[in-house]
Design goal:
0% strand; 249 residues
Length: 249
């Protein structure tokens, strides 16, 4: 057997062309799936921003200046929900970001498991108490129901994204496929590229591996990396917006 222009190794380039088409489809699916998770998380937090503002606007005008104590409660607890949801998704308990209230010390959260439910329960409980006192009518409670309910819906949607990772077997297979494809790439192009096949193969491996790494980075959008969602900034925007609403007359 003699290596030359007519060797069967030249046919390997045809195989690599077919494999390249397959691997491109797999990478497109992988990247799109990961980005869909990132974008879904961003939409959920965008909904939380809007619903927090809407709830603050409604409560601010329903209560009025004669219920200053109750307004102070909602002014602090609505942003607190955003912060505890952020910490819940990141699996930490940074209570120093929360604002304390009379009758609701931050230490109350230390022994609780699902902190978003605790804050949501306090919000709903205070609204129910106001209804029983006659400050809010049943019709007004229905007026507020959509925003209150959306908090738990958003929390559940974000938990679904966090707790349902892309199957490891799929990611592992794609890594092995990329490695095999790139390691055998010089066999298919050695006769056409000669020594240039070395940087060419390295560049192809860099591109394919980078796409896989990017997909891994964005499939969990609630982390603390620079590529993840800016949850701290979103929470601070919610606090600033809600505070501005309640302080405006």
């Amino acid at each position: 057997w003699r290596v030359g222009e007519n060797t069967d190794l030249k046919n390997v380039s045809l195989v690599h062309s077919l494999l390249g088409f397959v691997i491109s489809l797999l990478l497109v699916f992988r990247t799109n799936t990961a980005y869909d998770r990132w974008w879904e998380g961003r939409k959920q937090w965008g909904s939380l921003v809007n619903n927090s503002r809407n709830l603050a606007l409604k409560i601010h005008h329903l209560l009025g200046p004669e219920n200053e104590k109750e307004e102070r409660f909602f002014k602090k607890m609505i942003p607190n929900y955003a912060f505890v949801l952020k910490n819940h998704l990141r699996k930490n308990r940074h209570t120093h970001e929360l604002e304390a209230l009379d009758g609701f010390p931050i230490t109350y959260l230390n022994n609780r498991e699902h902190l978003p439910n605790v804050i949501a329960g306090e919000l709903i409980g205070r609204l129910v108490a106001l209804q029983k006192e006659g400050v809010i009518s049943p019709e007004q409670m229905l007026f507020l129901n959509a925003e209150i309910r959306s908090f738990t819906d958003i929390c559940g949607a974000c938990e679904r994204i966090r707790n349902t990772p892309i199957p490891y077997s799929y990611s592992s297979f794609l890594k092995k496929f990329i490695s095999f494809y790139c390691f055998t790439l010089p066999l298919g192009y050695i006769f056409s590229l000669h020594y240039l096949v070395v940087p060419f193969s390295c560049f192809v491996f860099y591109v394919l591996a980078s796409l896989e790494v990017i997909a891994e980075e964005i499939e969990d959008p609630f982390g603390e990396d620079s590529i993840d969602l800016p949850l701290v900034r979103i929470c601070e925007n919610i606090r600033a917006s809600v505070t501005d609403i309640f302080e405006r007359r």
